[in-house]
């Protein structure tokens, strides 16, 4: 670790070497760019409260980014890449100071053809769809933060979202086709990786390579109708959602279930909602929309809201799903937090009902339907939790595990402690090849600390690493 005086000298040397760049030096602005939505977790909020970069910069093009990387590598300064800042686990927050690089100016679509788009990592997801939809294509996977989230942020720290009911999470084979990567070296290299090797940088928090461009497969676009239907009984809401999700003939993009009183936190929708109701939000193709009233009636529900996408004062019900559900609730009650769970494809329905009954009142069920990496229909949970302390939160997570439900802990900021769940020799090997001095988001990849104990791996297109 550098001394404070050495760190300041190194930072000054980088700025002096590149005086024409758009540097951000004012402490309040740098601190703001060092933040994301980690405060969803009271544990991460406390752990990361004093973690900030010392300098930030906004490169205008790839050449400027390469110059920044080279200068930081020469000075051995940590570097963290920032997109829209919509992550939830402190993905971008620098644990060891250094430089924040805001890449939102690297935001061009590089190439498009039928069913495929290649774009720079700093592009907003909404801007991709604005250009692909007129040509008949849309994103297969769209987080609830799509208006702000960047493509690189989705790839580096995201999982799934709207559309995963059809195409699975982003990591499902066929969704990501290739990436272009810059290495963190004094003479940065640019390497193109095709899938599946490209996915070794997925959900790695930008710790093992700087992703410049991502090539994605697209989906044929539809005219979507957004629905919010309410139910007196949680089991009825779940059965209704399951019927939509399971029907191969109903064209859908999103299916989510919220147990009462989650929708009571949706204050912008208070005029159409009855307090204490369970709810299902679905996004249905217009060609199947006529089926919905009968299906709602069959499950003893009522339609609270229905509109064509984009026709409700610019709002979307998507922004009440996935982790936007947590955000909407925290606007009203800041004592809440959340979990991330993965139910078993073979019996997810039974597991959801059992966990709702077992933890009702303390844990508010929020279920998102999707397909897993193998195409099986299943669901994940983003339940709200009435937080008391860390001990009780850990006990709740263990209750899920004891009942066969996987927990992807969102209250940790190391990659392997959360969704990834294990140390990957391949992911660490990429970091050794692309970031040999451990300057990219250091501290987030636990496998780096035990790299000498990991087995030798051979990754096509990258290198053979001997440890």
What does this structure look like?
The protein has 467 residues and is of the alpha+beta class. 27% of the residues lie in helices and 23% in strands. The mean pLDDT is 95. The protein has an 8-stranded antiparallel β-sheet. Strands 5, 6, 7, 8, 9 and 10 form a 6-stranded antiparallel β-sheet that branches. A 4-stranded mixed β-sheet has the order 1-2-4-3, sandwiched between helices.
How is the topology of this model organized?
Layout: H1 4-17, E1 23-24, H2 27-33, H3 42-47, E2 55-57, H4 62-75, E3 79-82, E4 99-102, E5 109-113, E6 116-120, H5 125-132, E7 137-139, H6 151-157, H7 164-167, E8 176-182, E9 190-194, E10 210-220, E11 224-231, H8 234-246, E12 252-258, E13 278-285, H9 292-298, E14 301-308, H10 323-332, E15 336-338, E16 341-342, H11 348-359, E17 363-364, E18 366-371, E19 377-381, E20 384-386, H12 390-402, E21 406-407, H13 425-434, E22 457-459, E23 463-465
Parallel strand pairs: 2-4, 3-4
Antiparallel strand pairs: 1-2, 5-6, 6-10, 7-10, 8-9, 8-10, 11-13, 11-14, 12-13, 12-18, 15-20, 16-19, 16-21, 17-20, 18-19, 22-23
Helix pairs in contact: 1-4
Read across the widest sheet, the strand sequence of neighbours is: 14-11-13-12-18-19-16-21
Tally the beta strands: 23
Radius of gyration: 22 Å
Major β-sheet annotation:
8 strands, antiparallel
Number of helices: 13
- Quote the beta fraction: 15-25%
Secondary-structure class? alpha+beta
Shape: globular
End-to-end separation: 23 Å
